[in-house]
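Worked Example 4.2. Consider the chain below.
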Amino acid sequence: LTYSGGAFMSLLYSLWTESIVEAWNQLTPAIFGIVMCTAASALVLNFTGGYALADLGASAQQIIGKLNTIVISAFSVAFLGEHLPAIVIGGTALVLCGVAIFERGEHSAKEDDSESDSSSDSEEDSEEIRKPSA
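Applying the procedure from the previous section yields the following structure tokens:
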């Protein structure tokens, strides 16, 4: 375990505040299934997040984390009837503008890199043409 101290403290807290016998008596197959589905989805999402972090990089992962909050807010408004204050909507607009600026900068940097790579390749080709063959 990565956080064995935290896991141990969580176990102690749950043993101190909850009754194991009462929890066991309330455990039904449906509840057990829900708990196992929750654990399986958490496991899959953690591994998927690790692969995404390795593939996308840390900065893209931070952007996704920021967008996660916005998506959850949108779902709560759409499906749960929540109402967002104007300041939250303004903050959402700022985050989306920041993401757009970042993505535009990343796209421009990639274009600049590809242009410099292609120009250096053409310079090397022209030097090979100029060299007399022996």
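The chain is about 85% helix and 0% strand. The first helix runs from residue 4 to 17. Compare this with Example 4.1 before moving on.
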